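Course assignment 3, question 2. Fill in each field.
Student: A.L.
Task: Predict the tertiary structure for the chain below.
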Amino acid sequence: MLTETSSATTRKFRVSALLPLAALCLLTNLALASTPSSATLGPVNGATVNWAGSGIAGVTTDETTCVDGTDCDTFTINLSGSPSNYKGLVLNISIGWGLSTNDFDVYVHKGDITGPVVASSTNGIPDISEFVSIDPTVTGTGMYTVHIVDSTVAPGDPYHGTALITTPPTDTAAKGKAPTYANYTSPPGMGDSSGEPSIGSNWNSGRIMTQAVFDTMQVTFDTSTSPATAHWALKDATIADVVTFDPILFTDPSTGRTFVSELLGPTSLSAFTDNDGETYTNSQGAGIASGVDHQTIGGGPFRLCTADQLLATPVPCAQLAARGPLTQYPHAVYYASQDVGDAEMALSQDGGLTYEAAHPMYTLVDCAGIHGHIKVSSSGIVYVPNKNCGGVQGLVVSMDNGVTFSIQHVTGSKSSESDPSVGIGAKGRIYFGYVNGDGHPRIAVSDDQGRSWHTDQDVGVPFNLHNAAFPEVVAGDNDRASFFFLGTPQAGAATGADTGIPFNGVWHAYVATTYDGGKSWFTVDATPNDAVQLGAICMNGTSCPSKPRNLLDFNDVTVDKTGRVFAAYTDGCISAACIAKGNDPAASHTQNDNDGATKAVILRQQTGKGLFRSQDSGGGLQP
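Answer field:
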């Protein structure tokens, strides 16, 4: 794996542009080391060690983008004794510094620097400290490596670190309070065939773009009224004139470019717009040798080297640079689809106009053919989730702009019918939302690109949910994320193969939100008085022919530049009679009571804190 230094605020240069800067760095960067470099602690309450950093200076995006000895530092802690000796004790690690304009991050690995990340703290400016707490009875004794990374640090502000054996804190209350949401249904004649909706936010114009089947819609929210008023406009590309299947839309929020696509066998009919659908440019659509089903488009920064990396690993950096941008469009665009069993991905280096030949992501031996949607981190790592990789949920990862892929398994999970979803925090934290094999909605967190997972939680517990469908995740700051899904407290066979037994469930839309990195979640019913579906939701193709498949395979979620969360979903229960039955606990709730509709709806966060802390002034978002 290539170790790289880059950031959202430091430009990622091509190798030719890096050479002069690299020479300068060679003269000015000093080797860094903590003082002391290691210590041993035993299971004694109050045992403490202090160390000092040696003047880290630089800017990086996440742990994968720093170069040890240049802009990140390590301190090793050895815990003596056995895990049982630490019953009632924890290892607390904290670092602090002087200037609130600087920002350090902390990652703690079990073992050496290549071991799994068992804890991390990645708060942003203006904090002047980071803190983690580790339970050795869970993660074990022996070596721990504390990795201190400069996120945004100017020279002359060294950090100081402390490791302390102490009793665990008693306050585990969630931070903040639950957001609220409003639902906006598409106007008559628009979004009436809305299965498999996608949604994106253009941070430049402030508009929302959404697509379902053949309708591409531009939505503008007028915030001069309370609650805000939605203005819908149909903005189809010419590709919508062809009868196809598997629609998809993706908006790159920072560039504002929206991509729309319709799958036609092994060919994708695709176009993109830079003005929210006023005009479109038709594109090649997909890479040669792409698959025939379940397409997805995603994009974000290229995985490229910066000056420190070029010094450390010049050959891999040159290989990455060859897959960088070829035009003025700054971001990578990826297209992926599956071919019955195998799945492939293709890169576009010219903003989605043309694509290279597709590269295989995995075969049927590795994972099920159908996959979730592409997400790209701020440091250019590409992720594609999968509901079944050897019987567990999986995450397909590329660190080299879509040339090679590794498969990371979500430990403790079991495969299910719904595609999982990934949200990626600003500093690389992964939030993996999925429906477990028992039907429950769960979300797990990783700070090391999916190699290890922690704080896997069932977010349906507050509503006693026994079945869930269509998990969708979006993240903002590293410690904030929202998980949107459909759920019902009804147990039984709700989404899979046909058992012949009617499913008597009432489905609502739920949103779970974390403000503390996944330690705690607020789950709210976002449609408390209006069922989304009655009865079963078929997600197993022709193997459950007597169950309705009106909602098709997925929904979607996004965030705008203020941190406000938006979700797109299909409403299958829109008539007054259906809604009334959903609100009557004594009524029948089988598929025969359902409208079987496919109406486009946007869920908009109305109040509460958003996903960007910088926008928290005044206590949160306004209606």
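Instructor remarks: The longest strand covers residues 142-153. The radius of gyration is 24 Å.
Grade: pending
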